[in-house]
Amino acid sequence: MGLWQRFTLIFKSKANKALDRAEDPRETLDYSYEKQLELLQKVRRGVADVATSRKRLELQIQGLAQQEVKLEQQAKAALAGGREDLAREALTRRSGLHQQIADLQSQLGTLQEQEEKLTAAAQQLQTKVESFRTKKETIKATYSAAEAQAKIGEAFAGISSELGDVGLAVQRAEDKTAQMQARAGAIDELVASGALTDVTSMGKDDITVELERMASESDVNSQLAAMKRELEAGGDKPQIGQ
């Protein structure tokens, strides 16, 4: 397969997919129904045209029949009046009318057969069109329901996907929180056990720390003694709660 043929095949394939996505079967069904209605209308007009032609033939035959009767009466009257020549002429014309009536009756029979066939075809076509309309509406309703269900499914799928991402984020947050809690607990244990040295006492040995503690206590005791002397010298003792 040549490059151009491959390109043409790919183009047609993509075009068919695009048309398939764009095609709405409900619109196609409605269009088919409209075309069937147009065909039914044409058949009905055909029946009406044949019926009109039949009616004209019937009227024409009726008129010729009346002329035929009139010529017969005129032939009798002419013969009674001794005018055999006129009677013969009237009968000759009557014979010609009779032949015309016979031809028209033959045409009338053909038109009647055509009218009956077209009428039967129109009735059958109307039945099929009505059946198609019912089926069309059923298919459209089914398709609409399926389309709605598909959209709901797609919506749920999208929500499920988003919830899945949220679930992963929550799981990661919980894992990080647990790691941080474990780290904080481990540091507390290390501090309590003395494995980690307090930064405030870095560079000082135990003796220095103890001396500083004793000096701090001595300073506090001196301050308390001075306060007591001041209170005794003043002679008044503060009342608790005043």
Q: Count the helices. How many?
A: 4
| Radius of gyration computed on alpha carbons | 59 Å
- Could you say which structural class the secondary elements and strand pairing correspond to? mainly alpha
Uncertain runs are none
Number of strands: 0
Topology, pairings included?
Blueprint: H1 3-22, H2 25-80, H3 84-193, H4 206-234
Describe the 3D structure.
This protein is mostly helical. It has a domain at 22-147: Helix Hairpins (Orthogonal Bundle). Helix content is 89%, strand content 0%. The chain has 4 helices and no strands.
Task: Give a brief description.
This protein has 242 residues and is mainly alpha-helical. The protein contains four helices and no strands. The chain has a domain of 126 residues: Helix Hairpins.
List descriptors.
single chain; mainly alpha; Helix Hairpins; 242 residues
